Every structure is written in C-alpha cells, then in structure tokens.
Amino acid sequence: MNKTLLCSKRILFVLSFLVCTVTFINGHPNAFSFSESSWTPEGSEDDVSSRSLSYEDITPSEEMEDLDTEYSLDDVEDDLDDFDEYNFLTNNKRNPNSRADKSFRNFANYYMVVNSKGAVVGTKDLSKCMQSGIFEVGRTPTGKPFYWNKKSRKYLAIDPNGNVYMSPTQNSDTVIYTINDSKDLSIYLYRIVGQNQRLYLDLSPQSSTVGPGNTRNTTKFRSRNGLKTC
C-alpha cells in the first residue's frame, strides 16, 4: 500500500514537471527559434519590422518635386547673400511688385552712398553705407526698375548726358538696368540713351558714367541684401 502511494506521488511529480516544462516552452517568446544566439530582452520585442516604414511609405525619387526650371539667378528672390560675399542684383520675373533693400559696392571697394549734399558718391566707410547706402530696389507696376535711397528718399538717376544724381520723383532718368556677369558674380548698373547706347555707372569715388569700352573695377558692383545689408 505504501509502495503504491509512493509510486503514485512520483508519477504525479513527473507529470507536473512535464506540464510545467511544456507550458514554459509554449509561452517563451523565442520558443523553437533557430537563432544561434541566446535570448535577450532586446530580442523579445514584438515584430519590430511592423513599426518600420514600409516601401509604400517612402516617396520614390521620380515622384519628388523637381526644382522650378524658371528659377534662376535673374530672380530677385534668389538670395545668394551671406556674411562674407556680395551677391547679384537680380530681377524678379514672378512678382514685379516685390522689393528688396540692397547695398552696392564696386570692385574698388567703394560703397555707393548719398552724401549730405544729395550727391551720389563712393565711400569705403561701412558705417556710412549703413546710414545712407541702402536702396530699395524694385519695379514699377509697368515693370520699370528703380533704386530708391532710404536715407534721402530719392531715386537714383542718370540723365541723357551721363550725369548721376538723385531724383525726387520717378522719370525716364530713374530707369536703371543691370546686367549680370556670372564669372565673378558682378553686376553693372546702366541707363540706355539714344540708339540703345549704355551708360554705365562709375564710382571712383565721385559718380559718373562711362561707355561700354571703358568699364573697369569701378563700374563692376556686387549687391548685398538681408539683415546685414552693407
């Protein structure tokens, strides 16, 4: 009788052990895994891949927006300005009414300013540029460019004889064009007179104009705009 009871207890123990073992195996997160590495807490995360981006979530390169082919260095919104370089004066094709504050310095290091007598002159003094060398550049509703000095509240002008002055109102003398030189990021400011003759603005340091055959460092400018305009 005692032997039978002892035998039954052993059988129950073995069965209990087997049940516990099977239950543990079935509940293990990596049960029957063929991985050669041992189980770690990091390895027990549920289906990490399901939380990753699927291929459909990634925009193929051919579906990405291309740069506007009309965007060029001729747009006034193309700001190449930084703290060390002067940039192109640009024209705005998309919004003729937009305006930007700009300063101008030629390759002889003269800033274009308006002095106390109202004359256009060149200076190498940065503080004077900040005071009287900031021009609001834009276009009229008819598309004519203008350069309005914020200190004197007058417009940069060149008369038919090539004299440079500041005009209180807009007229044919205040229509000043630019041409860009992409080789050195420079621009030329000029007025057209007669039969498409160009008179280029010159600062050396007094202001004057020269013909196409006489351009030099004093007629080549870089413009700058932004928070630190000069």
Automatic annotation (TrEMBL):
Q: Where is the composition biased (Polar residues)?
A: 205-218
Instruction: List the keywords (alphabetical).
Output: Signal
What CDD domains does the record point to? Answer: beta-trefoil_FGF
Keyword presence, Signal: yes
Q: Which InterPro entries match?
A: IL1/FGF, Let-756-like_FGF
Which SUPFAM superfamilies does its entry note?
Answer: Cytokine
- Please note every region of biased composition (Basic residues): 219-230
Task: Report residue spans for region: Disordered.
Answer: 35-63, 205-230
Q: Where does the signal sequence lie?
A: 1-27
Q: Any idea what this protein is called?
A: Uncharacterized protein
